[in-house]
Design goal:
single chain; alpha+beta; Rossmann fold; D-amino Acid Aminotransferase, Chain A, domain 1; Dna Ligase, domain 1; four-stranded mixed β-sheet; 11 helices; 17 strands
């Protein structure tokens, strides 16, 4: 009998998206093929402690009590050197082996996880992992630099301006300069945050200062981005194994917003009204082909690997690329897996493909 691959699943973390990561991990751990994989669930507390997590049954998104990794007294230790791949567990004063890890699945969203930091740690530990490497993860996390690279690659993005908190504090009356060349409404976003955390819609110049205050609570860099009047459509990308090309899902999805200003955190994760997720989206064959080719171009431009969800606005004059998400939401109802399920790849098989591809890339 073939030995099961030992997969360490990382979740939780230090960012404001801690609870989203927990809920995503619960979905993955509930669907992963246990006949093929031995799973080591490793939670990261908000204080940065790595603990062995036994029970994920409470990791569902509930407005009254969002899921959280708590310190249970265990400590998962990284390999002693970059050749062993053996992780250990310290519990009640004793140290036991968790075995040699074949691949790590870092289901982490936001800073200190999705932004290249955990990827760097895994590289130093010599552990193969699912998803993009250090550079692409860091690039995909920063909206300003993602837009800069995509624009250089000839991909249409919404006009934007970057502002740092120190610059704004020094000249808080500079709203006019920030809005110059942009048409209201605009969106103010932390440069390095996800799940719509810290995002505000600004319809009047007087609202800009408060929107920046909210954004700067998440990051010291923010962007002021032109609002785009168009449909919100998304497509999923899977990176190829070594020697293979990346591919997109056969269908796209659409976020239909009605009765809300935008697709905010409550709508994404807490079931707030005014949002419908539609898959497959109703687009023409030519529109779908353009989405596919542009998504693959963007995936390549940022150097992504493994997986990504590429988000667009479909305006009257064509597509505007909004984001390349290198670790998209991965619950069974999230758009990334939904697009693949609608393309004929089951949720469990999608997880298997990502794990095996990550292991093969790490073996290069």
């Amino acid at each position: 009998m073939m030995r099961k691959l030992r997969v360490a699943v990382l979740f939780g973390g230090l960012s404001s998206e801690h609870s989203i990561s927990c809920a995503t991990a619960a979905g993955v751990l509930g669907a992963i093929d246990r006949d093929r994989f031995e799973v080591i669930p490793i939670g990261i507390t908000r204080a940065g402690q790595y603990v062995l997590q036994d029970d994920l049954s409470t990791f569902s998104l509930d407005r009254a009590e969002l899921p959280e990794v708590t310190d249970n007294g265990t400590r998962v230790r990284w390999p002693d050197d970059a050749t062993s791949r053996e992780m250990t567990l310290e519990r009640d004063g004793e140290v036991v082996s968790l075995g040699v890890i074949d691949v790590v699945f870092p289901i982490l969203h936001g800073t200190s996880g999705e932004d290249g930091t955990i990827q760097g740690l895994l590289e130093l530990a010599g552990l193969p992992y699912v998803g993009s490497g250090v550079l692409a993860s860091a690039l995909g996390m920063d909206k300003h630099f993602t837009k800069t690279v995509l624009q250089h690659a000839g991909i249409t993005v919404a006009p934007w301006k970057r502002v740092r908190s120190a610059e704004w504090e020094a000249t808080p009356d500079a709203a006019g300069a920030l809005l110059e060349g942009l048409t209201l409404p605009v969106f103010v976003k932390p440069a390095r945050a996800g799940s719509s955390v810290g995002v505000s819609r600004v319809a009047h110049p007087d609202e800009l200062a408060e929107a920046l205050r909210v954004a700067f609570a998440e990051d010291d860099s923010a962007i002021v981005e032109q609002g785009i009047d168009g449909r919100e459509v998304e497509i999923a990308v899977l990176g190829g194994r070594p020697g293979e090309a990346a591919r997109t899902s056969d269908v796209a999805g659409e976020i239909v917003v009605s009765g809300r200003d935008f697709y905010d955190f409550d709508a994404k994760y807490l079931g707030a009204a005014g949002i419908d997720l539609v898959c497959p989206a109703e687009v023409t064959g030519d529109e779908l082909d353009e989405m596919k080719s542009t998504a693959l171009h963007a995936f390549d431009a940022v150097g992504a690997e493994g997986l990504a969800r590429v988000d667009f606005f479909l305006a009257d004059d064509g597509f505007v690329l909004n984001e390349v998400n290198t670790m998209p939401g991965f619950t069974p109802i999230s758009m990334f897996p939904t697009c693949w399920i609608a393309s004929g790849l089951s949720y469990s098989d999608l997880i298997t493909e990502l794990i095996e591809a990550g292991r093969e890339r790490g073996a290069r």
